[in-house]
Each structure stands twice: as structure tokens, then as C-alpha cells.
Design goal:
By secondary structure, this protein is mostly helical. The protein has 2 helices and no strands. It has one domain. The two termini are about 35 Å apart.
Amino acid sequence: MFNRFEAADLTDLHTKAKAHILDKIPESGLYNIAKQEALEAIRLIENLVETIGWTLDYSALKIEGDGDKKLLK
């Protein structure tokens, strides 16, 4: 009643919160954790595939370097 909260205020708050989170991700170590988990998943798949006599084709696998990292929207 006294402090009106408009839709524009919520949109602005959401935008600022999202920007703050995206700024904190690189220093949190989440990229390295995600990379390690991805490699572990690939190793697990490789072991499963080898048990049935197949080989894993890595030609489509692409692991990016330490370049510009952004989250997909």
C-alpha cells in the first residue's frame, strides 16, 4: 500500500540479479567443476561402450579452451 512494487521494478530487479549471478560464476569455479564432470561422464560412457566391444568416436567431441564462456539462455 505504501511501497508500491510495479512490474518495471520486478523486471529491473530480475535483470540486476541475473547480471550479478553471471558476474560471480567465473570466480566460483563452476566451469572447472562442469568440465570435470563432463570428462567423467565421457569416461563412463567409454567404459560402457568398450565392455560390449565397441569404440567411442571422439570426432564430434569439442572441449573449448579458456576463452569467452557464457551461459546459454
